[in-house]
Amino acid sequence: MDERAQALERIYRDRYLGFRNALATITGDYETARDVVQEAFARALKSRSTVRNEGALEAWVWRIAIRTALELRGEHPSAKLNGAIDPKLVEPDRDPELADALRQLPPRRRLIVFLRYFADLSYDQIADVCSISEGTVAATLAQARATLEETLTEGAKP
Amino acid sequence: MTLDSEHLIRERFSIFVNRGDDSDWADVRRRAGRGRRRSRLLVLAVLAAAAVAIAAPALGLSGKIVHLFGSSEPAPARVEESFASLDVGAPPGMATGVIAEQTRKVLDQPIGDEKRAVLWIAPTKVGGFCMTLGLGRVDSAPHELGGGCDHDRALPFSLGLSAPGPISRTGKVLRGPILFSGSALIDEGRTVAFEFEDGKQATVPVVWVSEPIDAGFFVYAVPEEHWVEGRRPTMATLKDDEGKALARQQAYWFQFPRADR
Are B247 and B157 in contact, with CB atoms under 8 Å apart? Predict the structure, then answer.
C-alpha cells in the first residue's frame, strides 16, 4: 500500500466517529452516514493520486464525504455548501433546548458548528472544507456561539 | 446556564455524540476495488448481479477478468520513454499528465501466425490512462504500433484500428495483422462483440485492470476473411455478462479521401 493510502487509513481509523456523527446531521441517521463515510473513503482511495495538497488530505476527504452525502439525499453534488445543506441534530430530543437554538442558525453556520463540535475539525480544516477563509470560520463560530448562548440563556430564564 | 467558552459548548454537544464504533476499513478497500458506487441503497441490485454471476458458468456467460496493475510486468525503458515523450513540448492544456515511469504491460495476447499483441498502460496524474499497442513475434520483443490517452476518463468506450502493414489507397489490406483495440470505463463491460458486413459476429473478452487504472481493455485481431469488402467489421458493442449492450462504436475501416487514391 502506498503512503497516501496509508495516510487515508490513518485518518479513517483516527477520525471515523467524527466523520459519521457529523455526516449524520446531513443524512438524518447514523446508518446512512456510515455508508457515506465508507463510500467517501473508498472514493478517496480510488482518486488519491489526484490530491495536490498532501497537508489538506482530511479536508479533501471531507469535501468528498459531503458531496457523497448530498448525492444520497438526491441533491446535485456540485451544489454550493451554503444553500444545499440543511444539517440537523439526529436525536434532538436529547437536548430539545439546544436543538431549538441550533435550528435558529442559518444552515451554513449550523454546518460549521457541526464540523467543529462533532467532527472536531480545526478552523483551517473547516476553511478548506467549506472553501472560505479561516477568518470567516472564526467569525462564523463566534457569531454562532453568541447566538446559542443568547438563545439558551433566554430559554433558561424563568 | 451560560455558554461563554468553547469548553462549555463542547460539553453541551457531547450528549449527542454517538460513540458506537462500526468502522470497517476492509469494507472501504473492497468498495474502492469496485468500479462504481454501491451504497446500502443498492444492496438488492448487487445481490441480483451476484446471482447472475453465480449462474454464469452454467449459462456460458463470462465473468470479470481482473488484472492487477501493481503486480504487472513493468514496461521496457523504450516504451516508458515513448510515454514520457507524449508531454514533451505539449502546448498549455494539451499535456496528458502521463506518469510514464508507472507503465505496465497488462495484456499479452497471441494473435496467430506466431505473433502476439501487447498492451502497455500508464496512469495519468488526473486519474486517467494512456495506452499503446505493441506487436511482435512470440519469441521477440514487440514494437509499438501507437495508442492514445483518456487522460481524464472522458471516454466510456473507445475503439482504435491499427495496421502495421501496407494498405492500398482503396483500403485493401496488403499485409496483416489488423487490430482493433480499446478501453471501457463502464464497470459492467465484460465483452466486446464485433459485427461484420456479412452478418457474422466475433466476441473478445474485456480485461479489467485494477487501480490506479480501473478500466477495461481489449484487443481483437480481425481475421483475414474479414479484410475484404462485403465482410468488413461494421460495429463494436460493449456488452455486460448477460449480453446486454452497454455502448456501441462504429468500427471504421481504412478510408482514404478520393483525391488520395
Answer: yes
